[in-house]
Amino acid sequence: MSFATTAWSQDQPAKSPKGVAVAKKGTPKVDAKIDEIWKTCPKYSVNQPITDLLEIDSKNMATATVRLLWDDRYLYALWVVKDSELSADASDDWAQDSVELFLDQQHDKSTSYETDDAQYRVNCEGRISGQGTGYDEADIKAATKKNKKGYLVEMAIRTHAADNKSGTVMGIEFQVNDDHGSAQRDAISKWFHTEDDSWQDTSTFGTIEMK
Ligand code: BGC
Known about the structure:
Elements: H1 5-8, E1 20-25, E2 44-46, E3 48-49, E4 63-70, E5 74-82, E6 98-104, E7 117-123, E8 128-131, E9 140-147, E10 150-158, E11 169-178, E12 187-190, E13 206-210
Parallel strand pairs: 1-4, 1-13
Antiparallel strand pairs: 2-4, 3-12, 4-5, 5-10, 6-7, 6-11, 7-8, 9-10, 11-12, 11-13
């Protein structure tokens, strides 16, 4: 599937029926401000509920758009999250208002996490956490800013290989966790695979293509 360059700069999220997200080459400043370069990137919607875990009306659940950039050593993600009620009260990191990026760097789709697989999380207060065999907190930097509609997260993830190239493909998934005021998780929205298994199984991820 190809996207006209002009369509990228419009508000409509790019369609990704096959779970393919495209990252353009570029290095943004990770400061929770939307640099001009982000405006040229396609947006992907993280707005599909995990139906059997929904505790609220899906109309009220937090959703996001994600845009992606890459350079030799980093993958960058800009999340614009719509969330009408922000909370980091839940005791589990993954139940707080937060965004999660799951990465399978070798794209070998293993059904359990191996050394190339990790889950990176940033909550609405900017607190970083994560899990998975390949997770190292030193690999992620992030900036967060709350706004009237929710919050914005900008992430930089240092990739294990120091030589990302145009044509590099990895497995990826995006998730938004929503505590709608219960101090527990009330909704999860995802980009591609609508089950709560991305944290332990990389075989159902979509893909990211560095263009
Ligand atoms: C999942 C949780 C899981 C957690 C563990 C989250 O992405 O939604 O169910 O317990 O990851 O890291």
